[in-house]
Amino acid sequence: MSEKIVLIDGHSILNRAFYGVPDLTNSEGMHTNAVYGFLNIMFKILDTEKPEYLTVAFDVKKPTFRHEMFKEYKGTRKPMPEELRQQVPVIQDVLEAMGITIVKRQGFEADDILGTIAKMAEAEGKEVTLVSGDRDLLQLATKNIKISIPKTKKGGSEVEEYHTEDVIEKYGVTPVQIIDMKGLMGDTADNIPGVAGVGEKTAVKILKAFPSVEEAYEHIEEVEPKRARELLRAGKDMAFLSKKLATIKTDCELDYSIKDAKLENIFTSEAFEWIKKLELKSLVKKFDSEAMNKAVERPKNFKYLKKKIEVKRFADELIKDAPEVVGVSFFGDEWSNSGVTKKKNKKKSGGQMAFVFDDISAVSLEDESDSTNEYLFLGLSLSYEKNGEYETVSILKNDETDGDFLIETYKKIQKKIPHIALIDWKNELHLTAVAENLSEDREAPLQMAFDDSDLDRLFNKISDVSIAAYLINPLKDSYGADDIARDYLDMTIPSYSERFGKSRLSEIVSEIDDDYLRESADEEKNVVINNLLEYTGELSYVAVAGYKNLESTLEKTGMIKLYREVEMPTAYFLYQMERVGVKADIAVLEQLAKKLDRKIIELESDIYDLAGEEFNINSPKQLGVILFEKMKLPFAKKTKTGYSTSADILEKLKKEDPIISKILDYRQFTKLKSTYAEGLAVFIENDKRIHGKFNQMITATGRISSTEPNLQNIPIRMEMGREFRKVFKAKDGFVFLDADYSQIELRVLADMSEDEHLIQAYKNGDDIHRSTASKVFHTPFDEVTDLQRRNAKAVNFGIVYGISAFGLSQDLGTTRKEADEIIKKYFATYPAIKAFLDEKVEEAKETGYSYTKFGRRRPVPEIKSSNFMQRSFGERIAMNSPIQGTAADIIKIAMIKVARKLKEEKLKSRIVLQVHDELLVETSVDEIEKVKEILISNMQSAAELKVPLIAEVEQGDDWFEAH
DNA sequence: GACTTCACG
DNA sequence: ACGTACGTGAAGTCA
C-alpha cells in the first residue's frame, strides 16, 4: 500500500463551510461557523482516508501573477463578508495549533500550490486526495490523484469523488480536457470568458473530435458544425487566454517538502484551547483526556500543609519574606438550605467560577444544625513569588486547621502583605464569613478576615482578577480561574467540571479527607488528592500570576479608576447586601397563592368550556391549534415554529372571542403563581429572609443582575402582581425607604448629547414627555394631548433603545411610515441628539467599542456585520450602551456612597435591594430622617451632570407601600 | 437544551 | 430586501 496525502483547498472549504453552516458565535461574539464546518469536513476526510500526510493551502490576499492577468474579470466579485474574513486567520491558527502544515505563499494561488504538491506527491508514488469545494481542480484528477468535493446536505455531509474515469463519465471529457472545456465555454463562477456563443454542448462536441483547443484551431476547417467553426474563428484570442486562465500550474517553485507534512496527533492541548475559546462544544469530545490535561505550561511548586504547626511556620516565614502580593483563595461549596433544587445560572458553559453551584437534592452532608449557612468553607490556598518563581500552598480545613485557625492565620498574613489578589471577591467574602461562623449574625456582616476599618485601604489592597477580566471584556460568560489562565496567562488549566465533573467540592474533600491527613492513601486516592490540591492551588496561583497583566490592561484602557473606585467597592457592598437579605413574609405569599389558585381553576374551566375541549393552555403549540385551527380565529398573525400566541397578538384578538381575555388572565395568574408565589417561597431561609444573589459580572452594559431569586423583576405594573410587593417587609423596628432616580437614562442622554433643549427642559423641571410632545408636534405646552404625550414618551424610550422606525411603530401601534415621520420630526427638533447617536455609532465602528461616561466599555462586534439585521442590532447597541451603561455606573456610585455613609455613621439601616435605578433601604425607625437625607444627597451627587439628577424617596412598612 | 412567553428597569 | 426596539432571569413545553 502506498502512502496517502490529503491536500485541502483552505479558502474553498472555509467558504463552503461558511455558507453551509448557520451562523454561530461564541460568547464574545466571534463568528465560528466556518471554522466549525471546516474542521468537521476535515475530520471526516481524515477519518475515511486515514492519510499519512496532510497539507492545507491558502491564498494570500495580494495580487498574484495569475490574478494580475485576469483581475479585471475577478474584480466584479463580491468582497468576502466580514463574518467570514474574521475566520480566515482563526482557522489558520487552529490548524497550526494542530501541527498541520499550512502553505500560503505570496505570489501563488492556492490552486497552483495544490496542483504542484499533488504532482510532486504523485511523482513520489503517493496516493493523493485533493479536497476542494469547487470543481476547478478536476483537471488535476488522475488514477492516483482523487478530487474530493464535500457536499453539505441535510442529515450529514456527502463527498463526491473523482478519479480520471469519474470525470470522463460525468463530463464526457478527460481531466486534462477540462482546461480546454473552460477555454471554450468559459466559467462564469471564475469569470473566465471563454469563446462567445460556445456553451457546454458545443465544447464537448469539439473536444470529442479534437483532443485540445490547440488541435481544434490547427484543424479549424474540420470543425463541425459550421456555426461552431465561425464562433471559434471569432473568439480565438479569448479561447487561448481563457485556457491559460483556467490552467492550474503544477510546477511552482515551492519551498515545501512532503515529509514535513507528516500527520501527527492533531488533538493537541493547544488545539484544545482553541476549541474551548471558540466554544465548539461538539468538537471537545474528540480530544482525549490526555490532551485536555496536558498543559502548555502549568503552575508548579505546589505544597500542601496539614498540621497546624506547619501552617504556623509557613505563615511566619511568609510574613518574614514579605512579598508585595499574595494570591488567596478561600474555597468551598455554595449550598442551599431549602432542600429544593436551585436553578443554576443559565449562562454557563465552558469555564466555571471557582465554586460549584450544584443542586442539593441529596441530604446535606454534615452540619445540619446550622441550615442557614449558604456556603460551606473547605480550605484556603495561598500563592506568592519566591526567588523569581511562584509557590503555592493549599490547606484543607480539618480538625486541627479549622475555620477559626485559618482565618486567624490569614488575618496575620493579610495585615503584613500590601496586596492581595483573588478570584471573585464577593464569593470569597461569603466563605470567610462562613469560616468565621458569622452566620449567627447576618445583619452585622463585618468580617474579621478583612479589616474594613479603612475601606479605601481595603479596596486598594484587594485585586479581584475576575472583575478586572469582566471590565476588559464584559461579554464572556464566566471569569473563573481557567478562563483567566487561558486569556491572560496563556496557560491551560482544567476547568472545575473537567476535574470533578458534577461532583461538589465537599464530596471530593470528604472522600479523601482522612487519608490525606494520615498520609495513608493508596495510588488511586493520591490521584484524587493531587487533583483536588492542584485545583485549589490554581485558584490563588492564577490570581497572583494574572493580576498584574489584568491591571495594566485596565490602566491602558482607562478603566483602572472605574475598577478601583466603582467595581471593587460594589463587590464588597453587594456581598453585604446578599448577606443581609430582605425579609419576606411567607404568610402573605401563601395568601396570594391561594387567591391565584382559585382564579386559575375558574379560568381553566371557563377556557375549556369555550374551547369545547381540555388542553394544555400553557403550551403555545396546543393553544395555537385551538385558537387558530379549531376556533378559526382570524389573523393567525405571526409564525416561527407555529402560531405566535404572545400577549400583544392576543390583545388584538380580544374582541373576537371571550376566550382570549380569559387566556390572557390565565397566563398572567399562572405566571404569578409559579414564578412568584412558588418561586419566591423556596428561597425564604430560616431567618425569614431571602438572600438572593446580585451578580456583578453578567451584563454587557455594567448593570447588576439578580438571581436565585430574581429580585429585580418583582411585579409592579399590574394590579394583581403588584400585591407581591407586600411580601417584602421591613423587620420589626424598621421601615423601608425606597429611593429611585427620576428618568436617569434620559437625563444621561441630555448630559452626554449636550442638547440644549433637553437640558433646559430638565433645568426648568418640565414634564419631559410633554415638553418633547410640545416641541415635536408644534403644540403649545399646555395644549399637548394625552395621545401626543404618550407618543412622545414612546419616542423618548425609543431614542434610549437605539431608535428604529419599525420598533417605534410596534410600540405605538401605528405604521412604520408614521413612526418614521415622528422620528424625523424628533431629530429635527433635537439635532444634538441625532449628532450624539451618530457619533456613538461611528465610534463603535471605529474602535469596536461603546463607552460610558466613566470609561466602561462594551465590545460591539455586530456593528461590522455584513448582515443587515445584525449590523442594525450593533448600531442600536452602540446607541443604547453608553446611556444604559452610564446610568448603571451612576447607581453603582450612588450605592457605594450611601452604603459607606451608613457604615461611617454607624447606622443600623442597610441597603437590601438594588433595582437598576432604585435602592431599597431597611431603615431603623430612629434613623428615618437621617437616611432619607443620606439617600437623596448621595444619589443626587453621584455624578455631575449638565442636568439635575433627581432622586425621590418614599416610605412604607412593605415594598408595596414604599414604591 | 432550544424555544416561547412574560416579569422588571 | 432584510424583519427589530435596549438590558436582564425564570418557568413551562417539547423534542
Automatic annotation (TrEMBL):
Residues 721-927 form the DNA-directed DNA polymerase family A palm domain. Transmembrane segments: none annotated. It catalyses: DNA(n) + a 2'-deoxyribonucleoside 5'-triphosphate = DNA(n+1) + diphosphate. GO terms for molecular function: 5'-3' exonuclease activity; DNA binding; DNA-directed DNA polymerase activity. Residues 3-264 form the 5'-3' exonuclease domain. CDD domains: DNA_pol_A_pol_I_C, H3TH_53EXO, PIN_53EXO. Pfam families: 5_3_exonuc, 5_3_exonuc_N, DNA_pol_A. Its EC number is 2.7.7.7. Single-chain monomer with multiple functions. NCBIfam families: pola, PRK05755.1. This is DNA polymerase I.
